[in-house]
Amino acid sequence: MHPAAGGLRAVTSARNPALKLARALEAKKVRRERRLLVAEGEDLLTAALDHGVQPQVLLVDETRAGEIGDLLRRTAGVAERYAVPPSLMAGVSTLAAHPRVVALIPQPPHRSFGAVAFPPAPGVWLAGVADPGNVGTLVRSAAALGADWLALGPGSADPFHPRAVRGAMGATFALPLLEGVRAEDLATREGLRIVAAVAHGGVPPWEADLASPLVLALGAERGGLDTALDTLAARFPVVRVTIPQAAGTESLNVAAAGAALLAEALRQRHARGAGASS
Questions:
Q1: In a 3-state reduction of DSSP, which class is residue 172?
Q2: What is the pTM of this model?
Q3: Do residues 184 and 46 share a domain?
Q4: If DSSP codes are grouped into helix, strand and coil, which group holds residue 220?
Q5: Domains contained in the chain, number
């Protein structure tokens, strides 16, 4: 390895430890052990930097380093910054066309369920949402639409999976993410309000009180919330809401349903605030 332009160290072999680590982080076990995530592209790196998070390793396409000068200046203090040939960059990227930069970034600190805002206005709880893209989109929607936190129940995808990180578009660093929160854990809190999204049989969201503090429970499209609601309903009142749809259409996926319900909750909070101030 030898110095390259812009203060980057040149990489010439796929056996480079930084490249090997980037590839290894595709495995959840390694992500957990190293407490790192892979951020592909300058938008995700910028989001991390804007939240005060510096990458541990920076991999830059050596042919396009001149196009990201501002990011290179902002990461000047990072010890491991590498100029990587395009052919080797393609080997560490999960995208069809590799980006100009891939960053290995520390995961946000682990947060316990007992350490977040309560009562939440609102919180989001995912039960068995196994697709990383849906989890990432829900993280992004929750952050944008005023949720205090997002908790992942059993069977939900790793929020630090590369697809989840891409789907969150930087919200990974903006919203507290709680892992391994079971229905039984929710049931330990006092005064909890549960609003559960169900495919059929619930009230329209505009007829439910979504302005008061609540936890929005979302489940996988096939299994739904299933027995989790039985556990919660034994402890708290559970309001079931169903988003009406045009006849003959497919049901909304969990990410779309979650965004719609969070938007309605935000609308109701704004309307209640405007009414209180008039």
A1: helix
A2: 0.92
A3: no
A4: strand
A5: 2
